[in-house]
Amino acid sequence: MIRTSYERLPDLIGCDLGRSSWFEVDQARVDGFAGATDDHQWIHVDVARAGEVHGGTVVHGFLTLSLLPRLAAELLEIEDMSQMINCGTNRVRFTNMLHTGRKVRLHQTVEAVEARAGGQQLVTQCTFEIEGEERPACVAESVMLILP
């Protein structure tokens, strides 16, 4: 965990924030995400069929991406901010299937910090690594507005 102050955020440009702990994505979470998003494609929810074709069900790409706040909270703490606002993502790519029951973790680096909208815009490179695999599940650039 890296701890910094709001004023010292620019000092983190180029900093490797490290890796979060491993997080297992189980079928209950996949089914819940399918229910919340109405994405019931069989590769995510039909255990038998997906097992025959893909060796198991596959985690939704957007479910993987939605783990960003949970996993990123383990990597960076900004001591004197009032708010952190999610502004979105750039260049999101789902580069490998994450099978249900597997573990994923976040590797995050700071790409940019710029004054913006009364605060500082923090841009980070986010790589969702799959335990035991070379290719990550997802690579994305996260954009957050940090307010003092």
| Structural class by sheet pairing and helices | alpha+beta
Main pleated-sheet profile: 6 strands, antiparallel
Q: How many β-strand runs?
A: 8
**Radius of gyration, Cα only, in angstroms?**
17 Å
% residues in beta strands: 35-45%
Indicate the percent of residues in helices.
Answer: 10-25%
CATH class call:
Alpha Beta
Mean pLDDT: 97
- Overall tally of domains: 1
Per CATH, what is the topology?
Thiol Ester Dehydrase, Chain A
So, the CATH homologous superfamily?
Hotdog Thioesterase
General shape: elongated
Low-confidence stretches: none
CATH architecture: Roll
How many H/I helical runs?
A: 5
- Amino- and carboxy-terminal Cα gap: 20 Å
Order of helices and strands: EEEHHHHHEEEEE
Report on the structure:
The protein is elongated and about 55 Å long. The protein has 148 residues and is α+β, with helices and mostly antiparallel strands. It has helices at residues 27-37, 42-45, 47-54, 61-66, 68-72, and strands spanning 2-4, 16-19, 23-24, 76-78, 83-94, 103-116, 119-130, 138-147. The model has no long low-confidence stretch (mean pLDDT 97). Strand 7 (119-130) and strand 8 (138-147) form a beta hairpin. 23% of the residues lie in helices and 41% in strands. The strands form 2 sheets. Strands 2, 3, 5, 6, 7 and 8 form a 6-stranded antiparallel beta sheet that branches. The protein has a two-stranded parallel ribbon with strand order 1-4. It has 5 helices and 8 strands. The protein has a single domain, classed as Hotdog Thioesterase (Thiol Ester Dehydrase, Chain A, Roll). It starts with a strand and ends with a strand.
